[in-house]
Every structure is written in C-alpha cells, then in structure tokens.
Specification:
The protein is of the alpha/beta class and 353 residues long. It contains 18 helices and ten strands. 47% of the residues lie in helices and 16% in strands.
Length: 353
C-alpha cells in the first residue's frame, strides 16, 4: 500500500481520551463555585474580587486564581481586571437552581474520592469507600452533617416527579397506610400523599435523617399525616402498613444484604400487604460496543459500577429482582413502567400471602 492510500489515523479518539483523562477535576470546580455561593453573590452582575473575598472569607490570591481557572471552563467571566461574573452555564449553579444541589451532592467526597480506588474494587469486588475515607458510604454521611444535607438535597432532585409518576401508574387509594422504607427527607412520600389525600404515611430512615425529614414534610403541610421513624432496616421496620415502598434502596446493597432488607420488610408486612420496589431495571441484552444502546441503558451500566465502587450494590434486571422478592416469601403480582417527566421508573409489586 502506498503512502498516498494509507488510511489516516483517527485523531478524534486521541482527543477524546485526552479529554477524558483531564476531566476529573471539572466537577470539583462546579461544586466549589456552588459551595462558595459565587453564582448567588454575582446574581446582579460582576463584582470586584475584593468584595467576593469579603463575602466568602476566601484567601484573595487563591480566589483570584480559582475564578480565572473557572473562566477557562466557561463558568465565569472576568469583565475587567479582577472583576468576575458568571457565564450562562455558571449561573445555573445558583442556589435556587437544581444544578447547585446536583453539583454539591454528586461531587461530594463520598462520591468522588473512591474513584481513585477503582482498581482495588475491580480486584476485590468490594466497595472502595472504606479504603478511601476510612468508613463506609453511609457512615461517612452520618459523620459529616454538611455532606448528609447535600446528599439529601441531591436525592430529592434526582427523585424528580417519581411520586407523581407512581401515583399515575398505581391506584394508591387501595393502600391507606404507606410505609416508605429508606425514604430520606420525604420527597417521594410527600408526592404520594399529595396524590392520595386520604392516605397516611410512615417515613422510615436512619436516625440522622429524621430531623430533615420532619422539617421537609412539615413544610409540605403533611406533618399531621406522616409519622417519621428512625431505625435500621436490617433490624426492623414499622409494621402494619398496607404498602411498603423501596425506592433506589436495594441497588445500594449486594445480594446478601438486599435479601436481608427484604426479609425485614416482609416480616413487618401483614398478610395481604404489598411491597413496591421503585427502581430502574437493567435490560437483559448484549452490549456490543455500546454505540447502539439507548442513553438510559448506557447510563445504567455506568451507574451499576459506580454503586459497586461506592456502596457495594448493583443495578439489577427484572429477573434478579423477581428472584430476590420470591426468596423473601412474597408473590410478585405486577411489573409495570412509571414514566416520569425526567426518567422512566420501573415498578415491581409483590404481595405477602
């Protein structure tokens, strides 16, 4: 083959790989902007560095260099020497925007640092958070109230309109008492009770979550319809409910721990009560090179490894959930989609005989 007919190398793959390798700090810049409240402080327009130093308490030279680095990332602009404002993208990190909660929560240490230990997880099959931070994912959150608060805000944002989607797919009037196990600050339960005004609810989560949950549910006008209970779902959950919901709970845990959680929930369920697993099921299909997969499937495969890395769990297929639920002594009655505005949720309903 002559030099004229040799195929030119695809330089785009080199560029893409280089960008991937260099991308790891970018989320931290966005998170830092949100935590420092720079988008809030410049909402009326660009401000001198000295004023931003006074508002944030930052080290002047470090803040100047940080904001100029953010200019390179198209997050900030320097409209005059040492006068900084936000770009349209950077302005989305204002505290009133959901992107601020996403940046603060997603790029928190419990999410971010374990990625430096990917090889450890691949070799051992165990989550890396304990090696990275000296404690498990949820131990770290409970020991760091600020990170716990950011994580709670993140889960509320990512839940989106999940409760509304569930209420559109399932007749909630058949379940007078709804027990949301691992319900965090109450976004899902609040939406379910708003859609079913005749129902009552019980929110169950770790004791560290209880104050924030009570505050959020009271703010939604639901304090008189909800009991908030703290505890450990490996030990026991509140009994006597008609519907038990587990939203994005089981995927945090390996099969053995997921089975333990289901056994605890099943033990609390009276005969005839229903369990509803609200999750996103992994399609059972070959991946090929991934190029032809829909965005949802591509994201779920990425999330599945991230959950292993951080918490030891996994995204499961419908068949895997059926096996776990059946092993807990429950009978699967229905599997159906619940399309929301932001994402499609998968529901698996199972009844206790």
């Amino acid at each position: 083959m002559s030099k004229q007919t040799e195929q030119a190398p695809d330089l785009s793959i080199y560029t893409s790989l280089a960008e991937m390798i260099a991308n790891f700090p970018k989320a931290q810049y966005a998170r830092a902007l949100a935590l420092l409240r720079i988008p809030d402080l410049t909402v009326a327009g660009p401000r001198p560095l000295a004023e931003l130093v006074g508002e944030t308490g930052a080290h002047p030279e470090s803040l100047r260099r940080f904001l100029r680095a953010c200019v390179m990332l198209d997050l900030t602009v320097e409209t005059a020497p040492e006068v900084f404002g936000m770009t349209r993208m950077g302005a989305l990190l204002h505290s009133a925007s959901p992107f601020a909660a996403i940046a603060r929560g997603t790029a928190g240490l419990q999410h971010y640092v374990p990625y430096g230990y990917i090889v450890d997880t691949v070799l051992t099959g165990r989550p890396a958070t304990k090696a990275a931070l000296g404690m498990t994912f949820y131990e770290y959150l409970d020991a760091n109230p600020d990170e716990l608060r950011q994580f709670g805000a993140l889960t509320s944002i990512t839940s989106g309109d999940c409760g509304e989607a569930v209420a559109a797919a399932v007749d909630l009037s058949a379940y007078p008492t709804i027990v949301d196990v691992g319900g965090n600050s109450g976004t899902l339960l609040g939406q379910l009770l708003t859609a079913a005004p005749g129902n009552r609810g019980v929110l169950f989560d770790r004791p560290a979550i209880v104050p924030a949950a009570r505050e959020q549910l009271a703010g939604a006008g639901l304090a008189d319809r909800v009991e908030v209970v703290g505890g450990d779902f490996f030990d026991r959950v509140p009994d006597g409910g008609d519907l038990y919901t587990l939203k994005n709970i089981l995927w945090d845990w390996d099969d053995a721990d997921a089975a333990r959680i289901l056994a605890t929930v099943a033990a609390a369920m009276p005969s005839g009560a229903t369990l509803m697993i609200i999750d996103q099921f992994l399609p059972e299909m070959p991946l090929g090179d991934g190029a032809e997969l829909d965005p949802r499937t591509r994201e779920l495969h990425r999330v599945s490894f991230s959950i292993l890395l951080q918490r030891g769990g996994r995204v499961r297929t419908e068949a895997e959930y059926r096996d776990l639920v059946t092993a807990a002594g429950l009978t699967v009655t229905e599997v159906l989609p619940a399309p929301g505005a932001k994402r499609r949720w998968d529901l698996l309903l199972a009844r206790r005989p």
